[in-house]
Design brief:
single chain; 350 residues; alpha/beta; Rossmann fold; seven-stranded mixed β-sheet; four-stranded mixed β-sheet; disordered C terminus; binds 5-S-methyl-1-O-phosphono-5-thio-D-ribulose
C-alpha cells in the first residue's frame, strides 16, 4: 500500500517525506508556516500540483492556528508572501495561493477556519480529479508494447492523485499491459531514481533506470517510442518549464523523430506569460551538485550553476495533454485554447 502523500484532517497537515524515499516511508506533520515553507523549499513535498495542494493546506494550518479571525487576517499577508517565495517556478503554487487569498478576502465571521479548509480540500479534490482526466486523455497516445522514457517524478507523489505523465503511463499499462518505462535518474536530486522507480515498482510496471546522459543513445538505438514528461509552468505559446534535463530530452527526441508529450493540468498553464523566456527559473544550492546526498564529489569551492528547471521550446512538444483534452503542436495558442469558456472536451485540436 502506498501511504497518503498529503492529508489534512482535524486541522492537522501530514505529508509523506519524499526526501527519505525509497528507503523509509515516513509521515511528518507540518504544524505551522515555518514547517510548511521548509517542507516545500527542501523537497519534502515536491511536484508542481502537490506543491499547490500543500501550500493551500499550509494556509489552513498557518491561519487556523491563530486564536481568532482578526489575528488570522493580520497574519495572512506574511503567510502568503512566504509561501509564494518558497519555490518560484511551479505556477500551481501561485494558482492555489490565489484561490486561498480570495477566500481570505471574504473570510466569514463565523466558520472561517471551515471556509479555508473547504477551499483547500476543493483544490486537492480537483487536482485528483484532473489526474483521472489526464490519464484518460493521454492513454490513446500510447500503443500496447510501447517503450517510453520519462524524466523526474510525475506520479502520485507529485500530485496526491494518480500523477500527470506517470499517471498516464501507469493507467495505460494497467489497461493494455505490456508497457516498458525507461526512467531518467534526474540529476541532481534524483527524483527518477528515488521516486519514479519506487512508484513504478509499486504499480507493477516494468521499468529500467538509466543515467540522464544515456537517453539520447537509447533513442539512437531505436529503444524508445515516445517521451512523457510533466510541467511546472507552460507559457501561452506552449513553451514548457520542467525539471532540468527535459530540454535535452526533447532535443534528442526531435532529432530521432520520437514524439514528445507534456502532461499537465490547466492549473500549470500561465496565460499571463507569452513565452517561456519569461518563466522564472529556480536556482538551487551548489551542494546539490558538488555533494549529492551529502557526499562530496567535487573539490571544495568549485563554482556551480544549478538551475532546477529548463524551458523546452513549444516547437519540440508534439502534444500537450490537459484534463480538458489533447492539444497538438508544434504551434500552440493556449490563450485561445483556454481563454473564455472554450472547453476542449477531450478532442484533439490543432
Ligand atoms: O523539483 P521538483 O521535484 O518539484 O520538480 C518536479 C518536476 O519537475 C515535475 O516534472 C513537475 O512538477 C511536473 S509533475 C507533476
Amino acid at each position: 500500500m502506498t501511504p497518503e502523500v498529503v492529508s489534512f484532517r482535524a486541522g492537522r497537515l501530514t505529508v509523506l517525506d519524499q526526501t527519505r524515499l525509497p528507503h523509509e516511508e515516513c509521515l511528518v506533520e507540518l504544524a505551522d508556516l515555518e514547517q510548511v515553507e521548509r517542507a516545500i523549499r527542501t523537497l519534502v513535498v515536491r511536484g508542481a500540483p502537490l506543491i499547490g495542494v500543500t501550500a493551500a493546506f499550509g494556509v489552513c494550518v498557518s491561519l487556523g492556528g491563530q486564536p481568532a479571525r482578526p489575528a488570522a487576517l493580520d497574519y495572512a499577508p506574511e503567510v502568503f508572501a512566504r509561501l509564494r517565495a518558497s519555490r518560484p517556478t511551479a505556477i500551481n503554487l501561485f494558482w492555489a495561493l490565489e484561490r486561498m487569498e480570495r477566500v481570505v478576502e471574504a473570510l466569514p465571521d463565523s466558520g472561517w477556519r471551515e471556509a479555508l479548509e473547504r477551499e483547500a480540500q476543493a483544490i486537492f479534490r480537483e487536482t485528483v480529479e484532473q489526474d483521472e482526466a489526464l490519464a484518460a486523455h493521454g492513454a490513446p497516445l500510447l500503443e500496447s508494447g510501447a517503450r517510453v522514457i520519462t524524466h523526474c517524478n510525475t506520479g502520485p507523489l507529485a500530485t496526491g492523485g494518480r500523477g500527470t505523465a506517470l499517471g498516464v503511463l501507469i493507467g495505460a499499462h494497467n489497461a493494455h499491459g505490456n508497457l516498458h518505462v525507461y526512467v531518467d535518474e534526474t540529476r541532481p536530486r534524483w527524483q527518477g531514481a528515488h521516486l519514479t522507480t519506487w512508484e513504478l515498482a509499486k504499480a507493477g510496471v516494468p521499468h529500467t533506470l538509466i543515467a540522464d546522459s544515456a537517453a539520447a543513445f537509447l533513442m539512437q538505438r531505436g529503444g524508445v517510442h515516445s517521451v512523457w514528461v510533466g510541467a511546472d509552468r507552460i507559457a501561452a505559446n506552449g513553451d514548457t518549464a520542467n525539471k532540468i534535463g527535459t530540454y535535452s530530452l526533447a532535443l534528442a527526441a526531435s532529432h530521432h523523430g520520437v514524439p514528445f508529450y507534456v502532461v499537465a493540468p490547466t492549473s500549470t498553464v500561465d496565460l499571463a506569460l507569452s513565452e517561456g523566456s519569461a518563466i522564472p527559473i529556480e536556482e538551487r544550492a551548489p551542494e546539490e551538485v558538488t555533494a549529492p546526498e551529502g557526499r562530496p564529489l567535487a573539490p571544495e569551492g568549485t563554482t556551480v550553476w544549478n538551475p532546477a528547471f529548463d524551458v523546452t521550446p513549444a516547437a519540440l512538444v508534439s502534444a500537450i495533454v490537459t484534463e480538458q483534452g489533447v492539444i497538438r503542436g508544434p504551434r500552440y495558442d493556449l490563450r485561445k485554447s483556454f481563454g473564455a469558456a472554450r472547453v476542449l472536451a477531450g478532442t484533439a485540436t490543432k
